[in-house]
TrEMBL record:
It comes from the Bacteria. It comes from Candidatus Phycosocius spiralis. This is SsrA-binding protein. Belongs to the SmpB family. Keywords: Cytoplasm, RNA-binding.
Length: 155
């Protein structure tokens, strides 16, 4: 997959790259209601605690938070409802096989509007990190930061 052109970022899951090894990324559309899109246009959403789950040849985004849209009053949506993801059949089969056979997790990375104004979700097929792997990641990040400081101060 080529580089993703992001027009307007809505939500970012910064914790995902710390907690998981990212193996493969996918771009998926979402089935949304009108009030959800309006709420997303205001830029208020959270995908930090969410995950995707393959069920019956479909992939669903679970536990993502899209707050209610104030002006919609009684016609509003449920903030934490399951949302269907739109993927190609081949991608759904790949995800289903990886989750069921290899024990992988499907983690949302970014929620954004693409250049056409459609809401897209960047998903990753990921493998969970153990605690010692997370410590190694932190040490490596701090060493790179220190290297940058040393190079900047000397050069």
């Amino acid at each position: 997959m080529g580089p993703v052109q992001i027009r307007k970022l809505i939500a970012d899951n910064k914790r995902a790259r710390f907690d998981y090894y990212i193996e493969h990324t996918y771009e998926a559309g979402l089935v949304l209601t009108g009030t959800e899109v309006k709420s997303l246009r205001l830029g208020r959403a959270n995908i930090g605690e969410s995950y995707a789950s393959p069920e019956n040849n479909e992939v669903w985004l679970i536990n993502s938070y899209v707050p209610e849209y104030g002006p919609a009053s009684r016609f509003n949506h449920e903030p934490r409802r399951k949302r269907k993801l739109l993927l190609r059949a081949r991608e759904v089969n790949q995800l289903y096989a990886a989750v069921n056979r290899e024990g992988r997790t499907i983690v949302p990375l970014k929620l954004y509007f693409n250049e056409r104004g459609l809401v897209k979700l960047e998903l990753a097929l990921a493998k969970g990190k153990k605690d010692h792997d997370k410590r190694d990641t932190t040490k490596e990040r701090e060493w790179k930061r220190e290297q940058g400081r040393l190079m900047r101060d000397r050069g």
